[in-house]
Amino acid sequence: MSGDHKQDILLETGTNEMEIIEFYLGTQPxxxxxxxxxxxxxxxxxxxxxxPGCGDGMLGTLLLRGxxxxxxxxxxxxxxxxxxxxxxxxxxxxVCEFNDRVNGFKVDGVNQIHRxxxxxxxxxxxxxxxxxxxxxxxxxxxxxxxxxVDLEHIVAxxxxxxxxxxxxxxxxxxxxxxxxxxxxxxKLMMAEDSALIRTGIEKVLKGSHYTDLAVxxxxxxxxxxxxxxxxxxxxxxxxxxxxxxxxxxxxxxKMDGLTLCKKIKDDPILRDVxxxxxxxxxxxxxxxxxxQVGADGYATKPQIPYLVEMMDKFLEIDGLx
Length: 321
What we know:
2 domains; alpha/beta; globular; 11 helices; six-stranded mixed sheet; Rossmann fold; CATH 2.40.50.180
């Protein structure tokens, strides 16, 4: 995919739509968000350097225009059974960028790009998500059930540095002593569809004394709850006593984070709520989209210390001004 073509298919901000590229492992279709895709190249064995001992799925490093990137065999790693494919199958590499890293994913072919509504993306059942978090949901397109692959989770299975730093030292011990009571007063919400990431962020926030935290598994569930808060404000309660800040992922079933943010910031009753986007998709282009919907800040998912520092700034926590 050329850069020019990718520019052509970008969506307007806050429409609750995404574009996925459908690809194949064997004969089964899968998909990823186009925002993560830099380009598609033909797989060339001669550009691969095999690294022994990396484990099933990690092929080694791929030479791409003078730069080496890790190359993961998605079919092997997701444990797809081998199928007798035609000899002329044109295997390709999806070169993807997220969390400020570039990785390659070998697949058996690509079909096309589909524009879909997040409302049509079905989240994985909670009991499946707990044990098989390599998929974030599924969508039915033209009778095909397409599983949405969680590339961030797959990369983290190979690279420990790609995991979120849930044990980060956020402030000095002296500073931490000054913060607890102020942070504990703050009313927070978080919308995040990954059970793994929800648990990790919740651990960090509560360990930092941000204890009043309501957690939601998608943007729609979060928005429904915010609408209840709005009614309480209409009935006379101050918004500041009900909700101060929202942390939201961008990719979520039912309602994406950009749409959620836009709905809040377009509402004269709710617009004072601080909204921080916390997503693996944050780059220059996505940062511009966050600005368009009125987000107060944004951070990539490895940057948990930065996330908390941003929250402290927006919430005017004592001792950090």
